[in-house]
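Slide 14.
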Amino acid sequence: LHGYANAAMYFYRNLLGLAAATDAPVYALDMLGWGLSSRPSFKPEDKSVEACEDVFVESLEAWRAAAGIEKMNLAGHSMGGYLSVAYAERYPQRVERLVLLSPVGVPEGEGVKERLSGASWRFRTMVGMMGFFFERGLTPSSVVRNLPEKRGLGMVRNYVENRLPAVASLDEREFLTEYLYRNAVLPGSGEYCLNRLLTITVDARKPAVHRIPSLNVRSVAFLYGEVDWMDASGGLLVQQRAEQRRKGGLEAPEVEVYGIRNAGHLLMLENYQEFNAAVAKALGCEHRLPEGAARPKAIHFSDEVQFFRRTVFRERDGKVERANSGKAPSADADADAVAATVGA
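Slide 15: predicted structure.
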């Protein structure tokens, strides 16, 4: 499952490699309301988190039944990872293994006031304005949708160039730009889940850290990029809590955490070889990987050596800049993380 404002073909660098490594059918889906799936009006009367999750959980279950798949390994990137957790929680009998690809919404977040306590007045004002429009349903795609095509394409092109330097081919960049732009300007639907599921600080209203350790699935694997802006401490905390549950005599899935070198949040595009190897490893198919193939870094919450260098957004001289913190991600990262919503 793809992430927010993306679609199935974001995995174009992975499908052949994953099919070869797993020797099984691999499906990349356009979730309901995105890509070329139907785009129904997204206005459930019940504005609860559960009602919003149901839209995606039940449509995925309907697809599974129609496809005749009895049980599956389910992987999801970013928002797709969060929704994969919701699906596995509702239909554990349909999920063998869960693979969460830099998932959003795992750790317990702080409130906006706490995160902005040390920020300047200018930065707090900017975030306050963002929050005003965020709570009223303004989405990145709705902004692009209301711009002239030339300007909208230019914005998306800048996004691709800035966020995906690993995509060096000019033709490939242009294809990505066109794909993301067309996905954005189609009628809005699934995108309106954003403020139902997340806060302006990109924290889940119903954090997955409390949900994953009690899932009735065989295993859960987390994949994070080495310079991921998503907080990898969430996956490590889930790993720790799952081990504590098993030591206490309770059932819990086996939890693994993998780091992908030279990659950030878009790890499946930035280092697809190591990403593919990590997914194969998470699915118990490492033996099928070619000799000498890149392998991900296995991480444990007890490790003293830090692997992750979290990408954060810092305010400097009145401007929000992007930088690598050089620190392990933590659940109480500074107020700069608030601005990550701009570049999600």
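Speaker note: The radius of gyration is 19 Å.
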